[in-house]
Amino acid sequence: MKPQRKQDIILAGVGGQGILSIATVIDNAALREGLFIKQAEVHGMAQRGGAVQSHLRLSKDRIWSDLIPRGEADMILSVEPLEALRYLDYLRPEGVVVTSSTPFINIPDYPDREGLLARLQSIRGSIIVDSEKLAKDAGSSRTQNTVMLGAASRHLILREENLLEYIRVLFAPRGELILEANLKAFELGRRAAGF
Amino acid sequence: MNKEILLGDEAVALGAIHAGLTAAYSYPGTPASEIMEYLVKVSQESHGFIASWSVNEKVAYEEALGVSFAGRRALVSMKHVGLNVAADPFMSSSLTGANGGFVVAVADDPSMHSSQNEQDSRFFAQFAQIFCFEPSDHQEAYDMTRQAFDLSEDMNIPVMIRLVTRLSHSRSSVSPGEPRRPNDLHFGARQCWTLLPANARTRFRRILDLQAELIQFSNASTFNRLELNPKNTRLGIIASGIAYNYVLENLHGAKEKPSILKISTYPIPEDLVKTLVGSVETILVAEEGYPLIERSLKGLFGIAGKNLVGKLSGHLPLSGELSPEVVRTAVDLKPLPQRQLGDFKPAGRPPQLCQGCPHADTFNALKKALEGHERSNVFSDIGCYTLGYYPPYNAVNTCVCMGASVGMARGGAEAGIHPSIAVIGDSTFGHSGITALLGAAAFNTNMVLIILDNCTVAMTGGQPSFASGERLLKIIEGVGVPKEHIRVIEPLPKYLEKNAQVIKEEIAHPGISVIVAVRECLEEARKKRKR
Fold first, then answer.
1. N or C: less crowded end of chain B, CB within 10 Å?
2. Which residues of chain A, if any, have pLDDT below 70?
3. How far does the CA of residue A174 sit from the closest CA of chain B (Å)?
4. Cβ(B266)–Cβ(B219) under 8 Å?
């Protein structure tokens, strides 16, 4: 397989689930590997418990648009199953969906959970991970985002050691326990995705 | 220096620091807040300059103007609607001119991700007849900010940097240059800065006379790029700011590339536009915001013999932000194949008040107090509490601009609304509510103002509020509200009945009342615990 020159990723979740932390780790790992990056994110009013997404673009060549064009994304990486579906039209036909199966229910018309999972499973090449359980196993329910980063790691064009390095940079200032939980969350996510 | 990953906002901030900044001022507002957030963070580490939140954008603008008068370099930053608030000093500062470099960074929010309207600040730059830079990427945001300070000092004018959400809130790498030291103190000339009619006429003449020079500067700017393709006389594209990225995203690999003019500075570089227009049959104008360039080209009668397309012709949308897809359609390319959702429509997930938010408890008490009142209305304002519009609260019926609730409640009361209630946050009250309350108190208007004091500017990420706590109570009393009608409640579920009773009592009072609902923002309390 010839090495990919670029990777466009839609990061999805609900405000407060930590998708920007995932983005920070990927951004810095990519910069270390000499890639161009652009990463569009959501701030302000929309963050208050609403649907949030980040367009993350990595490339060996110059990147023009800050937004990923619909049909161009190589991956949807979501911390929440409904949010994984919201941006499906961004995905290229051969793209992958890596998503948590743990719903975040803060709206009255949240769809039936089984139906939602069946729909995700029907997407060719989808990887569905129980991030809630794995985060608890890792020692902190707040590490679901890192579980999902681990689950996506083998599909990223970045080296795992660089991802791990920036997990350390990001979480070390928050204390040894939080760092250890995140490192373990990454590992559990990676294994759950079948690697 | 090494490459750094920065938000577009942060690239502007770093450019200002490296240009030899003495002081920067701002009021929080999405998508501009991160300019000052970054400056505050760096100033706390290095102490080389002042970075300060202000009471509102007008005050911030005037504070920065004072720095420029003193010969030192100043940055003032705000969101697009903030420039409406600062429009008074902004318009007249084009007459005073700048002494020390003076840069106004304004972030527009097309699509209204976090705003009550979408407006295009390039029109404000045109209105004041000053120079404006519009970066397309992060490196340009950094480089243009540095150049804006140089230009401001060379031409003695304020210079605008116009950003949009997609650049403000996108991250990419920036290679910074060598920092330069700040200016020494040197005073502005009093005949330039005292806008008495006699002086002002001279100063206005000066900015008019400067226009030709500004256009020449624009023509020569290396930020504007004309790439002519003599083989393609059919189509030429004029693209500015972030729209240029969408054009190149779609066309950078094309075999028959059209001629492309990138515009990044205003006044419009007329010579470059003439060259492009002279070389092609159809001109497509792609710009984020209003059709400023397109309208200038079109005039009343269009360009004879040419086909001009863009937002005015319907080839691009007039509202909302552009995207790679809408520009793709405008350049006549087929959409990319994409995954389909079929008949599945994901349920919407709009923003909402946090679980346990104090505003929710105030709204619940207010709704209880208003039961049975058929001619009541709640006027609201700009902040998290505007989300009280949505179910399950359905508690508020207006939101216009910073501070509008107070004046509207007075007008509403005088038009026959009773009870006429205004709901405003502590920082928004400090920003623009105080003067309106001064009026309502002077006339003892029959209305109730509820100030939601959560001790912070919550919506934009927890910046300091200047009208909170004890100071807030003194302000209310100071503008003339009778002490017995200034009531304080604690919005908690357990005090629902008690709080509703307080509101009922003040509704019954036939004059001005202010109720302050005090409880700290949950998000801020959580952040403090983390620290």
1. C
2. 1-3, 44-47, 195
3. 9
4. no
- Examine the domain organization and report whether B256 and B202 are in the same domain: no
Burial class (CB in 10 A: 0-12, 13-18, 19+), B62: middle
B21: domain CATH number is: 3.40.50.970
Taking domain A6-192, whether its CATH number is 3.40.50.720 is answered by: no
For an interface test with B, the pick among A43, A83, A87, A110 (most B C-beta atoms closer than 10 Å) comes out as A43
ipTM of model:
0.94
User: Which structural domain, as residue segments, surrounds residue B102?
Assistant: 4-218
Task: Please write the tens of the pLDDT for every residue from B312-368.
Answer: 999 999 999 999 999 999 999 999 998 887 788 899 998 889 989 999 999 999 999
Domain termination site, one of B218, B240, B256: B218
Predicted local confidence at residue A1, as pLDDT: 44
Does A67 sit within 8 Å of B339, measured CB to CB?
Answer: no
The one-letter amino acid at A72: E
Contact flag B387-A93 (C-beta cutoff 8 Å): no
Quick one: B193 and B233 in the same domain? no
| Preferred mutation among B164, B247, B339, B389 to probe A, highest tally of A CBs within 10 A | B339
pLDDT digits (tens, 9 = 90+) for B267-316: 999 999 999 999 999 999 999 999 999 999 999 999 999 999 999 999 99
**Token pair recorded at residue B47:** 């102490």
Which residues 3-42 in chain B show a CB within 8 A of chain A?
3, 5, 30-31, 33-34
Q: CA of A127, closest CA in chain B: separation in Å?
A: 16
Residue B335 belongs to a domain: no
Domain finish residue from B168, B193, B218: B218
Region B79-104: what's the mean pLDDT? 98
Asked whether the beta carbons of B484 and B419 are under 8 A apart, the reply is no
Q: Which residues of A touch B114 (CB under 8 A)?
A: 43-46
Sheet holding B377-379, edge to edge: B377-379, B420-425, B447-453, B512-518, B486-489
